[in-house]
Amino acid sequence: MNQIVKIPTATNEPVRDYAPGTAETQSLKSKVQELKSTPVDIPMYIGGKKVYTDEKISIYPPHETSHNLGTYNKGNAQHVKDAIDAALAAKDSWALMPWQARSAIFLKAAELLAGPYRDKMNAATMLAQSKNAMQAEIDAACEMIDFFKFNVQFMSEIYAQQPPANSPGVWNQLEYRPLEGFVFALTPFNFTSICANLCAAPAMMGNTVVWKPAETQIYSAQVIMELFKEAGLPDGVINLVFVDGPATGEVVFNHRDFAGIHFTGSTGVFRHIWKTIGNNIEKYRSYPRIVGETGGKDFVMVHNSANVKQVNTALVRGSFEFQGQKCSAASRAYIPKSMWAELKPMLVENTNKLKMGTAEDFSNFINAVIDRKSFTKLAKYIDEAKAASDAEVIAGGSYDDTEGYFIRPTIIETSNPKYATMCDELFGPVLTIHVYEDDKFEETMELLDSTSEYALTGSIFAQDRNDINLALYKLRNAAGNFYINDKPTGAVVGQQPFGGARGSGTNDKAGSTVNLLRWTSMRTIKETFSAPTTYEYPFHS
């Protein structure tokens, strides 16, 4: 292939709105019903082979726990070993494949997802992760497409970065090698697109991958593997296993060829993984790349000059879309006292009228939280707030697990800026508000900055530019993604690279060249066209 390739220009996938009565709505509804009525038996994928076991685990929609969607095949430590072997066996041929060919696979995946796979990916996400149609569309379709297209563009930009100068008779090059070994992708339940990207980004750069998804995302993970297969991904490049975390970690983190981890999940798990890698560092062929996006306690800071209706909308959408189960969801807000009297009634009214129910009813704004563990945790925090002397539940506050794991969107008002729900990551539809004195704007930002161990997302609402600039400075380390007069969630690939610092991760910005660079090991190549034939320099004459 003797050409300099110009790849297709990446553009963001348009979001379908699924308005009532439209063809796209009817098509998606039909696919939801088709999947719901067709039980599946989901295999692991190791070296391109579908692997079934004797241990079948049932899958249920979080919003309809009486309905069985099918089963997945649970594996053991031997399956992890087999997956690593398959990844290492596929490594040389995959690394030697021209980058243009690797690009074509993921560009094809993007087009397949934009077309024939769109309904199936969205429907799987709606059923097993309890996302409404719009949230599934933004995540499982559009963001995944964007990841594939923009990462191809970012990859080409990386490969084009070459030394700017050459001495006479010398040609300098940079080669971007895949890592030496396999990459482990450990992925969450809440974003189907993130799961695809965590394994696809390293693979795109020539690495082979062992992928362990969250148990509650396995249903859509199967569709991702089907998509990759149809797009032409060779066997063994991405290997999907369903094995308990400790058993998986025991194999992965003790393996000589472990080259890196691409992770999204809890801060506690990530810290444990980091410690394990550190303790095992002498076992590895190379220093592993550790890339992770973890927890968040995302904030909205409001100045008294802000537009109250804009603040209200940002809090409702930012806190309660997808039941607050986004790493970026607004979960604490600081409201000036002079605004609270006007904001409170409209915020309570809007929150209380949010329609809640199954994902199959497209008119529902709120669906179920992911599982019983989450439901129990959230119910406990709500009950404690009801009984607290320094907190009050002003909206929502109810929950019901009769048919599914439903938590009403809840707002807690607290006089204590260090109250538990102002500090702890809840990962659910609970927003806590602290009202501050208007003249304490700067002090309140200092309080905000010191309250949480996290630094993922946050926003400032204000009109005066001086106040905005002050917030940008005071809160410069409080969020890796910072929003001005907008909710602190909804990052778009190619527009807002995503990631945070402190207890929120390594800030290796998914959806950018920064992330892809972590999956390469550069080699400098110097070629001299006419090498010296004597050791003597001119000054020796």
Describe the structure.
With 541 residues, the protein is of the alpha/beta class. The protein has 16 helices and 23 strands. It has helices at 23-36, 77-96, 99-114, 118-129, 133-160, 192-204, 218-231, 245-252, 267-279, 308-320, 337-352, 372-387, 420-423, 441-451, 465-474, 513-517, and strands spanning 40-42, 44-46, 49-51, 56-59, 70-73, 170-178, 182-186, 209-212, 238-240, 258-264, 289-293, 298-302, 330-336, 391-395, 399-400, 406-407, 410-414, 430-436, 454-455, 457-461, 481-484, 501-502, 520-528. Strands 14-17-18-13-12-20-21 form a 7-stranded mixed beta sheet, sandwiched between helices. Helix 7 links the parallel strand 8 and strand 9 (238-240). The protein starts with 22 loop residues before the first helix and ends in a 13-residue tail after the last strand.
Write the layout of secondary structure elements.
Elements: H1 23-36, E1 40-42, E2 44-46, E3 49-51, E4 56-59, E5 70-73, H2 77-96, H3 99-114, H4 118-129, H5 133-160, E6 170-178, E7 182-186, H6 192-204, E8 209-212, H7 218-231, E9 238-240, H8 245-252, E10 258-264, H9 267-279, E11 289-293, E12 298-302, H10 308-320, E13 330-336, H11 337-352, H12 372-387, E14 391-395, E15 399-400, E16 406-407, E17 410-414, H13 420-423, E18 430-436, H14 441-451, E19 454-455, E20 457-461, H15 465-474, E21 481-484, E22 501-502, H16 513-517, E23 520-528
Parallel strand pairs: 1-5, 7-8, 7-10, 8-9, 10-11, 12-13, 12-20, 13-18, 17-18, 20-21
Antiparallel strand pairs: 2-3, 4-5, 6-23, 14-17, 15-16, 19-22
Helix pairs in contact: 1-4, 2-8, 3-5, 3-7, 4-5, 4-7, 5-6, 10-11
